[in-house]
Write a structure and sequence with these properties.
about 450 residues, Glutaredoxin, alpha+beta, 11 strands, 18 helices
Length: about 450
């Protein structure tokens, strides 16, 4: 009996010790880093998405021991994405609503985040500027933060934000840095989208362009290069509002090849009569290379006579073959192009890959991150943009099929619809790391 009692006591102590060893608590910085890394890896391993049951099991285990109700806003906003896929979703949203009512800068930031998740939580008649934490947030917010806030407004809210918008417009002067002035591009886009006067956004675009040009006249060589780039973006078809449903901006190609060998392709004019899928990418971009099977699936689905697929890149000065370090190609276009031909053969790429004279982060196409897909109709008009090659196959085909039917062509049978998630699966709320990643403008 005594031995049995001792055994039971030992079992209880082990159980208690195990509970103490894994306390329910807010995440530490190390745990947040681990959660974000694990989430990134999970989505990279599931480029087409995972079923609801698998996602829930993964994120439940990942967040085991994490208590959203104990999180500060700085902690919670970094795990809201993972929480949205797990059993912690309701607790995280409840904590978010609590924090969004606090009369400080973090409270306002939480309020804006909550408003972006669903129409149910979003303010309608009133503007966010009446939040008790807005003044504190504004003091520490960057121009980009304030611009993003304007971009989140509804048309009704924007109509009540005239003073805020004019104050922000006036901030962008030639004395600002290139980094600060770059935030004005998003403000141009927001005003063009929301202002009842269609000229308001265009007028600010021209004033901002003048400020950028004046700033470039007295800048250092490095700053001048950044300002010149910004000026091109401000004068691009996208920023002018002359991109979607307009003729595609010029693309000039210096080298092109498909699975059979060299291809005659000097401009988009050579592709007239076909629906054209432009996939902006580079060999150093992990998500681009990871999307090759998706592009291969699309190529196999359509006849090359009806749909042209062009992987658009530009000379990078380096080639990444995969499995080893980069190969230096600085100043040697022929070497980089030859390595591309070898890369295509190794990866089984049977669609056209082309080097454009224009940079792969092409401002006229709004390419701020890669991969980036734009679709043109047979007349060369931009019909869809800012897509990802790993978007669902059915979604891509629906867009392309409509353009083929417009030509009087019969598209191939539609691919099967993806399996739907279980009805009780938690719907995703904007994750902190995109499920389908892109690489922002820049090179490694």
């Amino acid at each position: 009996m005594q031995d049995g009692s001792l055994h039971r006591m030992h079992t209880v102590l082990v159980l208690v010790a195990s509970l103490v060893a894994v306390p329910i608590a807010p995440p530490t910085p190390e745990q947040i880093s681990r959660i974000r890394d694990a989430q990134r890896t999970f989505f990279q391993q599931h480029p087409k998405g995972a079923n609801g049951e698998e996602m829930t099991a993964f994120f439940n285990e990942l967040l085991d021991g994490i208590e959203p109700s104990e999180c500060s806003w700085s902690q919670l906003k970094q795990i809201m994405g993972p929480c949205s896929f797990s059993a912690k979703r309701d607790a995280a949203q409840a904590r978010l609503k609590q924090l969004a009512n606090e009369p400080n800068a973090d409270g306002f930031d939480a309020f804006v985040y909550a408003s972006s998740l669903s129409q149910e939580d979003a303010p309608t008649a009133a503007t966010p500027f009446g939040h008790p934490g807005y003044a504190a947030w504004k003091q520490s917010a960057s121009p980009l933060d304030r611009t993003r806030l304007i971009g989140r407004l509804t048309s009704d809210q924007f109509a009540q934000a005239d003073a805020e918008v004019k104050e922000l417009e006036a901030w962008f002067t030639p004395e600002r840095s290139a980094k600060d002035l770059a935030a004005g591009v998003q403000l141009v886009e927001a005003i063009k989208r929301l202002a009842p006067d269609p000229d308001q956004g265009e007028q600010f675009r021209l004033r901002l362009l003048d400020a950028v040009v004046l700033a470039g006249g007295k800048a250092s060589p490095e700053e001048k290069a950044a300002l010149n780039k910004l000026a091109k973006k401000l004068d691009s078809a996208v920023t002018r509002g002359e991109f979607l449903d307009h003729p595609a901006p010029k693309l000039s190609f210096t080298w092109a090849q498909d699975g059979k060998g060299p291809v005659k392709l000097s401009s988009l004019d050579d592709l007239k009569g076909k629906v054209v899928v432009l996939d902006f990418w580079a060999t150093w971009c992990g998500p681009c290379v990871g999307s090759i099977p998706n592009v291969k699936e699309l190529r196999a689905h359509y006849s090359p006579d009806d749909v042209a697929i062009v992987g658009v890149t530009s000379l990078q000065g380096k080639h990444y073959p995969g499995g080893t370090g980069p190969i230096d190609c600085t100043g040697d276009a022929a070497k980089e192009q030859g390595l591309m031909a070898e890369f295509m053969k190794a990866k089984g790429i049977d669609w056209t890959i082309a080097f454009s004279e224009q940079e792969v982060f092409n401002p006229d196409y709004g390419v701020n991150g890669i991969p980036h897909v734009t679709i043109l109709d047979a007349e060369g008009i931009v019909r869809h943009t800012d897509l990802h090659p790993a978007d669902p196959m059915l979604a891509k085909c629906t867009k392309i099929d409509a353009l083929l039917r417009k030509q009087g062509k019969t598209p191939p049978a539609a691919p099967p619809a993806p399996e739907s998630a279980p009805p009780d699966a938690a719907p995703p709320a904007a994750p902190s790391i995109p499920a389908i990643p892109t690489i922002p403008a820049g090179k490694p």
